[in-house]
Amino acid sequence: MKKTVFSGILLAVASILVAIGVAEISFPESILTFTDQDWLIDLWPKAYRYNIQVGLGAIIVAMGLCFPAYRLQKDFAIRALETLLRIGIGGMFIFASIFKIQDPHQFAVLVAQYQFFPALHLENVNNFFALVYPQFELWFGLAMIFTPFVRESAFAIFWMFVSFIIALSWALGNDLGITCGCFELEDGDAHDKAEAWTSLIRDIILIWPTLWLATRKSRSLIKVWKK
Asked: Which residue, of 79, 173, 192, 196, has the fewest CB within 10 Å?
């Protein structure tokens, strides 16, 4: 019993850190971020510029806490991790789709700035991609959380992560100073590759738990906890 409690505490802390990490990376100046706090900026005026690095660090620490939780209570940790990952990754894709669905024109502009489709002589695909891709993010994110089809949704999200990694690598390889456009549709003419690098690292990290989810049994979150 004690091992289960300690394992649960470690996973709870890891969950909080992941939530903070996602907020710092994707939703700066939200209730879960602290790099925008006045007291911290008074001590370190440039703190707000490092929200992505802080978020990425929080996620890495959270992943590190999962190992001792697993060693303490394997069965409980696996069930909890599957639940947390399905809610976390699914929720992330749902939120990522909202901004793009609300403003498909701006998303199409941002996609065009990657200059990927023209290089493949597929210029006409850009607008279609901007309309359809956010729908995939939304519906597969919902499926990950609310349906038993975890394998199918995780497999689809895995390939979306692959596409993100390819796009970000392309932008970095061609020295394109544009924002990621993963969560917020900011002006792509940023001339700062820091966000692209951290987004690439984030996606490389998250693709592995997504691949793990693709190996899980097809069952609802409720049945995950039924023996």
From this structure: 173
Length of the chain equals 227
Can you give the residue range of the structural domain that contains 179?
Answer: 84-227
Residues 111 and 182 in one domain: yes
Percent of all residues in the chain with a pLDDT value above 90, rounded to a whole number? 20
pTM across the whole model? 0.80
Considering the domain architecture, whether residues 61 and 133 belong to the same structural domain is answered as no
Mean of pLDDT values over 109-123: 74
pLDDT at 99 (0 to 100): 84
